Amino acid sequence: MINIKEDEKLSVLNHSCAHLLAQAVKHLYPHAMFWVGPVIEEGFYYDIDLGDNVITEDDLATIEKEMKKISKDGKRIVRHEISKEEALEQFKNDPYKIDLISRMDEADTVISCYTQGDFTDLCRGPHVETVKELKYFKLLKSSGAYWKGDSKNKMLQRIYGICFFNEEDLNNHLLALEDAKQRDHRKIGKDLDIFMSHDLVGKGMPLWLPNGAIIRKQLENYIYEKEQKMGYKHVYTPCVGTVDLYKTSGHWDHYQENMFPSMKVDEEEFVLRPMNCPHHMLIYGNELHSYRDLPIRIGEFAADFRYEASGAVKGLERVRCMCQNDAHLFVRPDQIGEEFKKVVSLILEVYKDFGLKDYKFRLSLRDPEDKEKYFDDDEMWNSAEAKLREVLNELGVEYFEAVGEAAFYGPKLDVEVKPAVGPEVTLSTCQLDFLLPRRFELSYIDRDGSKKTPVVLHRAIFGTFDRFTAFILEETKGVLPLWLSPVQMNIVPVNNEYHLEYSKELEELLRNEGFRVEMDAREEKLSYRMRESQTRKIPLTLIVGDKERDEKTISYRLFGTTETTTLSREEFVAFVKDLIVNKK
Predict the structure, then answer these.
(1) What is the per-residue pLDDT for 106?
(2) Is 306 an active-site residue?
(3) CA–CA distances in Å: residue 425 to residues 4, 324, 358, 469, 570
(4) 430 is catalytic
(5) Which helix (DSSP H) or strand (DSSP E) does residue 240 occupy?
(6) What is the rounded distance in angstroms from the CA atom of residue 116 to the CA atom of residue 407?
(7) 511 pLDDT higher than 60
(8) CA distances to 101, 142, 147, 156, 228 from 152, in Å
(9) Is 277 a catalytic residue?
(10) Is 218 noted as a catalytic residue in this protein?
(11) Could you give the CA distance from residue 79 to residue 115 in angstroms, rounded to a whole number?
(12) Which of 21, 438, 508, 542 would you call most buried, defined as having the most Cβ atoms within 10 angstroms of its Cβ?
């Protein structure tokens, strides 16, 4: 979808349409008062105080009708400038405009307003020439919004809309919005019983239902197998740590605002862990290491907790409790390049398996002028950043640099992926760290018998299982590949009286082969049960009738097709295993 804010002409058009919306609302609700009506990526909105009135879907249609009436009238949109004193007088009965005007710098000698017919609004502009240019628009939804975004203030009504220069672009955008709605992982998650939330558990704390647990377990098995082959050692560590642990790591000073409040138990003060590196540092330090032992790769599927504002949490995509596909690689300085290369190669391999193609690498660097956010060691930073650049250039990977986006302890590589819905998201990360090993006084015995400090690579291939699951659900619209689908096949007997016995025989056979199988033997019409199988997006639907029973065969339909294929039982098992093993 088009980012309205990034298109200058569309931005002006949409801002003008926000004023058209306000004028129409003023006609229909003369007591209405207006806060702000900015352009956003998705179009525009206006925050409105309507007193006791509540806008419904039917009301949006009425407002649209009035907007079209005003547009046909064709009034010019005229800019005029007034002093701050004049502005305060003109809008003296509107507390929202008075608030805006009062906060303007006294040095601003003039304030601009725009008038269209009987409506004048405070605005910097620019706008289109006449309201007649505002023909192709749509009001999308309304919601509540606190004045100034502060929950202590009054709740206003926010009306969202979109405007284009022609009907084709508007219709295409509306189709894209509908597609985005169908791809929303929150909708898919509810429809397919993947996850839920509950106020008694808390915002941003999703509950994975049995279907979701299967998806997550398959993802864990997939990446665990790859990491095992690469020599990773997996561990389990507690979900809490003492405040002293995070003071030692430096997170207490640099990351505390993203952490949950501490809690005192007996004589100790604990905090829910926001990341796993401090625990893994202690595991490395639990025994002596020789230079021959390195690299040591410690991995964990770890539950972490980070404070997110309640308005920011979203399904599985942005949560307060998450499970990271985390690992920390303890290496000698001469091993940095090779290990970093292996991490990048693993990322590329995983993305290929999942068919991800629209992504880019971001090399996040420190801001050398910011001595508070970043550990003050120029030699360390220069060396680390140069090493990552060297490896990326050697691999021929295209990347861009982002100054000021590094972690406080070292530069990092982020992979930004363009999802089917919404803006880019960061999935994979790899961070180079010279600092934490020093803080935890980690060491290894080098060839000459001296103690040396290892370097650590923090890396997460999936990022979190939560966000990756949300991403995959939206990419596939919930139509998951066979290996990942919670239910891989659904057996539908045509008639229970004649076909149920063979259906049960098939169910047992296929379960023993390790497939995830269900049977729908409800006393419903065959056509209804077949549609249900499609609605649930089950990859394979097996139909059992007289022929299948008598010939001991299996007839199946792939999701989204009406073609039926019949195979022997041995052929079907081999066919399914090939799909699963090769991640087809």
Answers:
(1) 59
(2) yes
(3) 19, 15, 11, 13, 43
(4) no
(5) strand 240-242
(6) 50
(7) yes
(8) 22, 21, 9, 12, 52
(9) yes
(10) no
(11) 7
(12) 21
